[in-house]
Amino acid sequence: MKAAVYHGPPGSWPEKPLNIEEVPAPVPGPKEVLVKVAACGLCHTDVTILRGAPIVDDFPIILGHEPSGIVTEVGAGVTAIQPGQRVIVSSNFPCLTCDECRSGNENRCANSTLIGVNCNGALAEYIVAPETGVYTIPDSLSLEESCIVADIVCTAYHAVYNRANVRPGDTVAIYGASGAIGLMCVQYASAIGATVIAIGRKKWKLEIARELGADEIISSEETQELARTIRTMTNGGVDTSLDTSGVPAMLENALRSTRVGGSIVEIALSFDKIQVSLNRLMWWEHNIMGSRTFNPTVIPKAFKLIEKGIVRLDKLVSHRFKLDQVNEAYQMLERGELIRGVVIPGD
Q1: Which of 290, 307, 330 is a domain's end point?
Q2: Does 116 share its domain with 60?
Q3: Which terminal residue of the chain has fewer beta carbons within 10 Å of its beta carbon, N or C?
Q4: Percent of the chain beyond pLDDT 70?
Q5: Going by DSSP bridges, is the β-strand pair 238-243/171-175 parallel, antiparallel, or unpaired?
Q6: Do residues 99 and 122 make contact, with C-beta atoms less than 8 angstroms apart?
Q7: Does the model's pTM come out above 0.90?
Q8: What residue numbers bound the domain in which 7 lies?
Q9: How many domains does the chain have?
């Protein structure tokens, strides 16, 4: 099969690009499913890996962790999935046996496998996955657009509903709302009934945030005093700030623009450091927390909201690429020219 293979070493891209190569197609073992990839979303986590993040186990590796496709073969013992079904493959496979998994916190599993990180991903014509990591797509939804449910759609759901615990009437600031995961957070918070302030760089993307439910939009390229602007706008600060950017300055603004007793949730993968005033943390009684991927129970809930039209995927999938355009696609993503690009390996 054809696949986009990154040979490393970490940080050598784009000088050493992903190569389109012929590699052996995976074969499903017991309790595993073989999926012909229809689409794979391109995530900033991939760019972080390409730029040198020390999270990949071994090179060479096939990146890509947001796949959708058609089941072509199942291994022995598979009962819930059948050939011909339209599915997504979850971006991570928890072990389901550790204490965290048994307590319902599968997203915290220390033994989980992340596709495109701990094993080969989906920038290829086929991918194999455990039956427990494969979920059918409702008939009414697009096969290609549904690929992003495998990560950002569910990651944003977990952040907004389970970690931030957003409630009707809350005021919520979403930093990085010009990116795909930020736009998903905008949709969820708006659907709950919160007043949503979307903060991002690109004005054209923020206009999409407004279309998807943001009550106010603020461009960080046009506004110098973000925190002060938001405190003035909200008469003292928002109830909750979510940072989807991974940019230290944005998280520091989130800390300064959140009211006394409010919450700050970090969603993005980043290896940067921030400075926090301990006095402010104590005096303002802020709740600072991380939000890590999602639990399997989120997937059907997210699909239900999409089916009902409460959240939209079509506004997020902005570009489609062939497999041999993957390096160009990642460069466009890094420059902020995409919302969510997807690769169609079969094209």
Answers
A1: 290
A2: yes
A3: C
A4: 100
A5: parallel
A6: no
A7: yes
A8: 2-151+294-344
A9: 2
